[in-house]
Structure formats: structure tokens, C-alpha cells
Design a protein that fits this description.
single chain; 478 residues; alpha/beta; FAD/NAD(P)-binding domain; globular; 4Fe-4S; DPD_II
């Protein structure tokens, strides 16, 4: 360990931008065993592991780095999977530069962070290759049934932990494939769909049932689920796109980011897209409005679809954007043009098609409560930008939860998200919630944490219920 003074920071080989622009394959190759061990050995094994506190899951990062450096890969995988149900997924898509790697002591000292995400992926990919990851073997069935609404990262994480405890689990999801945004919202070049599918297949082989094409409020009610199961976990995510508010925003030519990404991912599955002409970037001048990771997914997808040009409008500068700076670098390498300090003033075109964006130039004012400097309008600084495919990537909000629950849903926050205790319990006994429907649109790693936390609470509550019932049975009759 502590080899950061003799070994430079190194990531797995990244495919050249000219090559990766042509397909949707993942851009990084795998670590070979020696490279993975060498990078793990750069860890300083510091007494206070800030990488661990910087990870929402509080993964035992120094421990599995040490084990990987020593070649004890199965033990490294066991330690990694003890705190995360999807380490190889987090290793691919977490913004490590803002989380564990950004907190790394070696990064702060100027030597470059340990490449934690890449080593995490390397460990679990080795586990899959070696056959260490098998279906869950339940020691004892509890007899309790749990319904999980939503097959995204929160729902899948909860299902895995609940099944490990011996509970019967059924996952309900509105889509025709399990995975939520992991399947339909994140492009293949960041997360190949086979990586997600082998996780859901493992759950199926472990006895978890999937009821797809089933939407809460349309195909099944919350009341029905409560009658069907001993506990219900709501992990329905946030799918309502934040609206762009400027003249022309009502045009059908403005494409919501999720519609665009879902069409692209379905195309990758070989499906025919009904609205193909509207949702295809080939040969078009693309403008994406937004600065988060979803915006980066959109611009990089448009490049791969053969757009004539791709421009990203963001109202702050590079240093104050919410997305991963690593993703911005990838996008720039692939040919995306960033118009920093730029906001849409109006969309040009008609009710069905758009021809461009009137752009308002911005400046930066005082920091907001998150520490990012607030954008301010520069009066008289306007310009026009051509674009016949305009995509809004402004984030997501909660859908109408109360309507989906038939008017008898849990108490909500003013934002429309589900209000929970610190233990994921809602206002309805036996109903729990986690992930984006509680936090608002957030990171996959936070959804996984919520799913695992909710599973622990549900298990504790069901076991307490069983113990209480057993106690009543043993009490003498009066």
C-alpha cells in the first residue's frame, strides 16, 4: 500500500474519441489484474478514510482496496458487496469526482485520487467472471410478503436485501423491462444494459417475482397491494420533466430529455420507434438545455447518432455546473460545444417545429445555499443559435403520488415527494418509501442506499410483528 508516491494515477484504457463517437459501446476497457492491483495499492490507508465518508453507502473502500492490492479478490468482492448491491454499476456511473475520489486524501495532497470507481468495477467484474456471484440462497423463509413498486435502483436494492432475509418479494414496474432509469435513462456508453440485466436475472433466479407493465394507479392500487402483501415499498422515482418557461416552450418541437434517451435506448434493444423522425438527431443541429448528468447523456447520445452539431446551453459556468466534470470532459473530447453562462430567452419556430434558440447571456452573482454562484442576467447581451432539435434536460419532479395511490396515499412534502421518517417509514403503517420519490431527483447511489435502508427497516418491523404474534399465542387465556 501507500504506493501513490511511485505510481501515477491511472484509469482503464479509454477508447479514442474519434472511435467512440461511432457507437454506443462503453468508453472504458477493463483493468487487467496487475493494473487493478497497482491502482488499489496507491491507497494511503489513512486513519480517517474521507473516501468512505464521501460515499453515500459508506463503502469500506480502504479495506477492499487493500484486499485487491494483495490479490485477495474474492475477499475484496465480499467486502464490497456487503455494503452495496450494485458495486459494478456504481463504479461505472457514480460521479466519483464529486464523491469518494473527490474526498480522497491523496487527491487533496496533489498526487491524484485513487481510481476508486474503476477498481470497484474491476473487483465485481472479476467476481462475475469467476462465478462467485450466485443466486441468493435463503437460509429460512419468513412467510412474509413484500411488494416493491418500482424496478429502479432503489427497488432492486431493497428486493435483494429483503430476499436475503427470507422474505417473499414481488416487484411491480410500469415498464416492460426492469431497471428503471438504469435501462431507459442512462446510455449504453456509460452503462451497458447487459450489466443491469444480469442483476435482474440474478434476482429472478433467487425467487424474486417481477410483474412488469404494471403501473400504480392504473393497473393496481395501493390498497390492493397492502391487502396482497405484509409490507409495501414505494420506489417509483421522479419522472415528471421540469418545464422550460420561456416563449416557444409549448412547441411540440421541444423534446423532453427522458423521451429522447428512452427512444435511443429502445432503439439499442432493436425496437422500432414510433416517433423516429422527431427523436433522432442524425444530420440535425442539436441544442441541449441544462448542465446536469442527464444533459451530458443527451449531448453525447446526439453525437453518436450523427448530429451535424451539438451545443449545450448552461446558465452558469463550468465550475458551477451540477453534473460530473468528468462527463463534461468526455463530451468535449467527442465534439460537444458548450455555451457557458447562457440561458434560453425564447425558442424560435412554430407550434410543431423549432429552428433555434434566442440566448440570453448571463453573469455570476453571489453563491446560493449550495455554494454555487447564482446566475444573473446581463442586460442587452443576447444572441441567436441555430437548432432544429432542441432538448430540455432540466431535471425531474415527482408525479402526482396521491392520484396514483387513489387519493389515500401517504403524506407528501410541499415538493410533492413522499414524507418519511429517517427509517423510510411513511404516514401509512406498513408502507415505506425511498429513492427519488423521497429525495427528489438524485444520484443512483443514493437510491441504492435508500433501498437498502428501507429493506433493513421493513425486515425489523416484520420480525417485530412476528415476535409480537408469537408472544400473544403463548400468553395464557384469561
Amino acid at each position: 500500500m501507500l504506493r501513490f508516491t511511485e505510481l501515477d494515477q491511472s484509469y482503464p484504457a479509454k477508447r479514442p474519441a474519434k472511435e467512440r463517437r461511432k457507437d454506443f459501446d462503453e468508453i472504458y476497457g477493463p483493468f487487467n489484474p496487475k493494473a487493478g492491483a497497482d491502482q488499489a495499492a496507491r491507497c494511503s490507508q489513512c486513519g480517517v478514510p474521507f473516501c468512505q465518508s464521501g460515499c453515500p453507502l459508506h463503502n469500506d473502500i480502504p479495506d477492499w482496496l487493500m484486499l485487491a492490492a494483495e490479490g485477495r479478490m474474492e475477499e475484496a468482492w465480499e467486502r464490497s458487496s456487503a455494503t452495496s448491491t450494485m458495486p459494478e454499476i456504481c463504479g461505472r456511473i457514480c460521479p466519483q469526482d464529486r464523491l469518494c475520489e473527490g474526498s480522497c486524501v491523496i487527491e487533496q495532497s496533489g498526487h491524484g485520487a485513487v481510481t476508486i470507481g474503476a477498481v470497484e468495477t474491476h473487483i465485481t467484474e472479476t467476481a462475475w467472471k469467476e462465478g462467485w456471484i450466485q443466486p441468493i440462497r435463503v437460509k429460512r423463509e419468513t412467510g412474509f410478503s413484500v411488494g416493491v413498486v418500482g424496478a429502479g435502483p432503489a427497488g432492486l436494492a431493497a428486493a435483494e436485501r429483503l430476499r436475503e432475509q427470507g422474505h417473499s418479494v414481488t416487484i411491480y414496474d410500469r415498464h416492460d423491462r426492469a431497471g428503471g432509469l438504469l435501462i431507459y435513462g442512462i446510455p449504453n456508453f456509460k452503462l451497458d444494459k447487459s450489466v443491469v440485466e444480469r442483476r435482474t436475472q440474478r434476482l429472478q433466479k433467487s425467487g424474486v417475482a417481477f410483474q412488469l407493465n404494471t403501473e400504480l394507479g392504473r393497473d393496481v392500487s395501493l390498497e390492493e397491494l397492502r391487502e396482497r402483501h405484509d409490507a409495501v415499498f414505494l420506489a417509483i422515482g421522479t419522472y415528471k420533466a421540469r418545464a422550460l418557461t420561456c416563449p416557444g416552450a409549448g412547441s411540440d418541437g421541444l423534446i423532453p430529455a427522458l423521451d429522447y434517451l428512452t427512444a435511443s435506448n429502445r432503439r439499442g434493444f432493436g425496437e422500432t420507434i414510433a416517433d423516429e423522425a422527431r427523436l433522432q438527431a442524425k444530420g440535425r443541429k442539436v441544442v441541449v438545455i441544462g448542465g446536469g448528468d442527464t444533459a451530458m447523456d443527451c449531448v453525447r447520445t446526439a453525437i453518436r447518432q450523427g448530429a451535424a452539431s451539438v451545443t449545450c446551453l448552461y446558465r452558469r459556468d463550468r465550475e458551477n455546473m451540477p453534473g460530473s466534470l468528468r462527463e463534461v470532459t468526455h463530451a468535449e473530447e467527442e465534439g460537444v460545444v458548450f455555451e457557458w453562462l447562457s440561458a434560453p430567452l425564447a425558442l424560435k419556430g412554430d407550434a410543431t417545429t423549432l429552428s433555434g434558440v434566442r440566448v440570453q447571456r448571463m453573469g455570476l452573482g453571489a453563491p446560493d445555499r449550495d455554494g454555487r454562484r447564482q446566475p444573473i442576467v446581463l442586460e442587452g447581451a443576447e444572441t441567436d443559435l441555430d437548432g432544429d432539435l432542441v432538448i430540455a434536460a432540466l431535471g425531474y419532479e415527482a408525479e402526482d403520488v396521491d392520484a396514483a395511490c387513489g387519493g389515500g396515499g401517504p403524506v407528501l412534502t410541499p415538493r410533492g415527494t413522499v414524507r418519511v421518517t429517517e427509517r423510510c417509514r411513511t404516514s401509512i403503517p406498513g408502507v415505506y418509501a425511498g429513492g427519488d420519490i423521497v429525495r427528489g431527483a438524485s444520484l443512483v447511489v443514493w437510491a441504492i442506499k435508500d433501498g437498502q435502508d428501507a429493506a433493513a427497516t421493513i425486515h425489523a418491523d416484520l420480525m417485530a410483528r412476528a415476535e409480537s404474534a408469537q408472544t400473544r399465542e403463548l400468553e395464557p387465556a384469561e
